[in-house]
Amino acid sequence: MKKISLLLLAILFCFSISTAGTKPKKAISDGLYLIKKEGTDTKRFDSVTKSDVVVRFDKMFVENKEHGHVRLLIDTSDYVPLELEKPAVTEQQTEAKKKLLLSLTKQASEKLKTFTAKHVMRHVAIVVDGKALTMHKIKVAITSGQLQITRCNDNACERLFVKLKDNVR
Q1: Coil, helix or strand for 124?
Q2: Is the pLDDT of residue 139 over 60?
Q3: Residue 141 has pLDDT above 90, yes or no
Q4: Region 11-23: what's the mean pLDDT?
Q5: Cβ neighbours of residue 126 closer than 8 Å, sequence gap 6 or more
Q6: DSSP of 50-108, one letter per residue?
Q7: What pLDDT was estimated at residue 14?
Q8: Calpha distance 51→36 (Å, rounded)
Q9: DSSP per-residue letters across 135-154
Q10: By three-state DSSP, how is residue 10 classified?
Q11: CB 99 within 8 A of CB 150
Q12: Angstrom distance (rounded) from CA 16 to CA 5
């Protein structure tokens, strides 16, 4: 019996040592986040704050599948939640591509307006289920509360549409 107890203690001790240096992955809400850095080697993401999170970029949502940046460092301290006023809508854009239309709630729309005004000419990512699905450059402040995701291919819009269907408030 002592041997079994000692064995269990040894296993618990080894497990606690192996997990001591690992950080639990921070769960983040679906939303629009400011991109601080992008790259393939997260070791090059210096000056990381406690509000920064590294997320994977899903290549399914880009036309050029050779896009080299597969990790994004995003700032979670200020973001626009993807809270939809009504279900997302897809529209045919060309024969092979669709666009996705998102109508945000009043509260999320106000947040979108201030967020985009503050970050004009900066890059942002739409993050759903902990993955960056799309990246965009804010060219002007968005004041309408409407987001339009264009150039979806390979059924990407449908997959994003399905992921966002439960975000209606």
Answers
A1: strand
A2: yes
A3: yes
A4: 42
A5: 31, 32, 82, 132, 133, 134, 136, 147, 149
A6: TTEEEEEE-GGG-S-TT----EEEEEEEEEEE--BSS--EEEE-SSS-EEEEEEB-HHH
A7: 46
A8: 11
A9: EEE--S---SSEEEEEEE-T
A10: helix
A11: yes
A12: 16
